[in-house]
Write a structure and sequence with these properties.
Elements lengths: L5 H25 L3 H4 L4 E7 L5 E4 L6 H16 L8 E4 L11 E10 L2 E11 L28 E5 L2 E2 L1 H8 L5 H29 L1 H23 L5 E9 L9 E10 L2 E5 L15 H15 L13 E3 L18 H17 L17 E8 L4 E7 L29 H7 L2 E8 L15 E7 L3 E7 L20 E6 L2 E3 L6 E8 L3 E5 L14 H9 L5 H7 L2
Parallel strand pairs: 10-11
Antiparallel strand pairs: 1-2, 1-5, 3-4, 3-6, 4-5, 6-7, 8-9, 9-10, 12-13, 12-16, 14-15, 15-20, 16-19, 17-18, 17-20
Amino acid sequence: MTQIDSVTLSVIQSGLQQVCNEMDLAFCRGAFSPVISESQDRSNGIYDRDTGRLIAQGDLGLPIFVGTMQFSTKEVIQRAKDIREGDIYAINDPYLGGTHLMDVRFTMPFFYRGELFAWLANTGHWPDIGGMVPGGFSAHATEIEQEGLRLPPVKLFKQGKLDDELLSVIMSNIRIPEQRIGDIKAQAAALTIGAQRLTQLLDRYGKTTVETAIAELNSRSEAQMRECIRQIPDGEYQGKSFLDSDGVVDEPLEIHLVVTKQGDSLTFDLSKSSPPCQGPMNSVLATTKSSVYLAMKHIFPDVPLNAGTFAPIDVRDPVGTFLDAQYPRPVSGCAAEVSQRIAEAVFNALVDAIPDVLFAAPAGTTANLAIGGHDPERDRSYVMYAISGGGYGGYSGGDGLTNGCSTIGISKSQPVEILEQNYPILFERYAIHEGSGGAGEFRGGMGIHFRLRLLRGTAKASMVMDHGKFGPPGARGGKHGGMTRIVIYRDGKPYEPEHVSKDQGIVLRAGDVVEVLTPGGGGYGDPADRPRDQVERDIALGYYAREVAERLFA
């Protein structure tokens, strides 16, 4: 194989990353939906032409898509026929390497000088995909068909031209189709930008040199991850986490993880977890595996990201559990919620083995809230999908971050001004969730507390959240973080969901209020060891009422 010097290798590595970053930015700038343009709920990457394995992904891409896009690209490769330059396949089928139906992937073959060199792919969260409720988060679904339109790999663009017949099928099955067409064109444009930039990189360095660099980067990432894994003592470690319920049966779901460390590799066994559930909290295999991958990337963030990063990590198929969903199990909660419980189980399992590296559990919910209705003033229908932050866990040497993004991604809450501009709502409160940070020598960060009022018309609210019954656990003597709470005020009367964190189709009228409190992170270390001046500072900043702080940090 051709040798490559370290300078050229570094430049090509940065060049591949820049291709993906430019795709990310093009997607955000062109998208119509605020959840993509503002929250950045999307990802772009470059994938191997034969296997679909990850070559590079943008710095701004969601970590949960790191693994799943590998799986879905592989499914497209296996099914694609008569591949031409400019073809773009659309796919959102969860059972074919996906997440939930709202995450729609576009995959395009990239040709260089007439030969297939790689695949470019991206994922965007569409605010609606049809189904029982606006926004797609059907908390009570019992089969996938109730969650929305499911797409196997279909060639939506043929040699650069959008297939109007396929588009009409998609548009006829989703709400607010005029917004989706803008997202579709932005998603395709991002891939086109990626093809242009990757062509420029290959023109500059040559196909052979770039291929050599890709192979070397994979090899080095694998070696670096193996070196990181060696920090963990050999042995068997167990971690557990719990979901509030599946949205249908009001009983917790257990994630039971056994991690085996031997030498420079790790094996993850989730086979003791709860069986498949009736509601939408099942997880497809691609999401389950990707959740473990992203957890390990959280633990060792300095390892460069490509397929080699995950070579030392063996995630056994958890057959017969709710973490290996098979058709027709509903899965709308898998990417946003179950994935974070899986990552939490990984953190719990390894925190005592590498206490100076790991941390207490973060908030672990995306706090998915969808409100859909008709605005009489503007005479148009809408679907608002909003996500919220929460507290990070404390760690050895520091407190957790307040109002951080979710474990699975860098998606941020949309600015309240943008939401108020686009939808008939008014935020009456947006503040920290007082007292939600788990007590510890290093306390957890705070969640948030917001109230929004429907100003006009009628609407339906649905939510799929978690940690409403089990707070994010602390570590090494730290206490758990505060829990999710949802209250709907209709005609001034409070209503709280039976499942605490999950409900759907709640009818709202003008003047009704939705109130949400998100979890704080777990505490790290014995609360009694927290310096008194730090406790006083927390009280002064309004993080805890004095009487609460005196009790928690006694």
